[in-house]
Amino acid sequence: MNITTEVFRIDSINFEETIKKAALILKKGGIVAFPTETVYGLGADALNPEAVRKIFRAKGRPADNPLIVHIASKEQLYKLVMEVPVYATGLMDAFWPGPLTLVLKRKNVVPDITTGGLDTVAIRMPDNHISLELIREAGTPIAAPSANVSGRPSPTDAEHVIADLAGRINAVIDDGSVKIGVESTVVDVTGDIPVILRPGGIGIEDIRKLAGDAVIGYNDRLVGGEEAVRSPGMKYTHYSPQTEMVLVEGKGGEVSDKISELVATGHENGMLLGLLITEETASHVSADEMYSLGERDKPEQAARSLFTGLRWLDSRGLDVIIVDGSVKHEGIGAAVLNRLRKAADRII
Ligand code: AMP
Ligand code: MG
Predict the structure, then answer these.
(1) In this structure, how many other beta carbons lie within 10 angstroms of the beta carbon of residue 345?
(2) How far is Cα 136 from Cα 50, in angstroms, rounded to an integer?
(3) Which domains does the chain have, with CATH numbers?
(4) Which ligand is nearest to the CA of 238?
(5) Residue 273 has what pLDDT?
(6) Nearest-CA neighbor of 177 among 321, 299, 37?
(7) Is the pLDDT of residue 216 over 60?
(8) Which of 36, 68, 69 to mutate to test the pocket of ligand 1 (most atoms within 8 A of CB)?
(9) For the chain, how far is it from start to end, CA to CA, in angstroms?
(10) pLDDT score for 238
């Protein structure tokens, strides 16, 4: 696969023209990476099976791992799904546009390839002006997983997309860094109560304020065996740097002590070590390369720096990346810990 990847650096002057060019590629069945508020997505016309197939090929994504369909209006939603429970409408009204994906019973217009052969489809309305205008201009819902090679850390900047997918996709709209930095919260709303399939940009606490009986249907470890898998994505390795990665969890002080110990032992053995680390821990310990996760109590800072930090440390020729897991687990912090646990080779 070697196609020319156009890079559209978008600004307020060329905005309309850039959206038109990108939308035309999508209408013709091409694939275009674009910014959303969560991470960069790799888009195709969700109703065109040939176009969607190109996404799977470009990413090397397993065919049974379904895509999220992005819409710009509620009218688009009702063309794609059968019935919508009342509590699901409440979630939509509260969090759309935003980082909440709802899994609903699909109509037949949605092709099998988009849903990994399931009778449900995952849908969200992104809170990003470029995404919304692109979907409107293309005149069709856009299927878009994260715009990275399958298994690698998600892309939070156009540079990450280019590093992974140049030569494999038709274009990327470059708008710099994204706002949130981790993917959407995925909620199955096909039953009587909502089931959270993936933590993400919307905190589980916030979903429970509206739908109090929401239950957790995900596991931070890799899930094996057919029964346990409610969302196909749970089976696959995710978010991983190429460098060996160790995650250290626990209370602040314990984490600082453990990381100091790991650094001392690693250095005795002549290793080059990187730290993805909170400000508080960084005041006690240092290593060869460091990237900040922000303050422990502000998980939204960790969400924004997580994937950029992993990619940067991965490029530094290190032997091991040690990650500080003392970030607060609440709100978006649950999504941060989930991504770190899935990415880690070892958890201490
Ligand atoms: P990504 O596109 O990489 O953000 O991943 C989308 C996530 O949503 C994956 O974990 C998918 O398995 C999950 N997903 C998408 N569609 C469905 C569906 N119909 N039912 C359950 N999970 C889904
Ligand atoms: Mg992804």
Answers:
(1) 13
(2) 21
(3) 6-216 (3.90.870.10), 244-347 (3.40.50.11030)
(4) 2
(5) 98
(6) 37
(7) yes
(8) 68
(9) 40
(10) 82
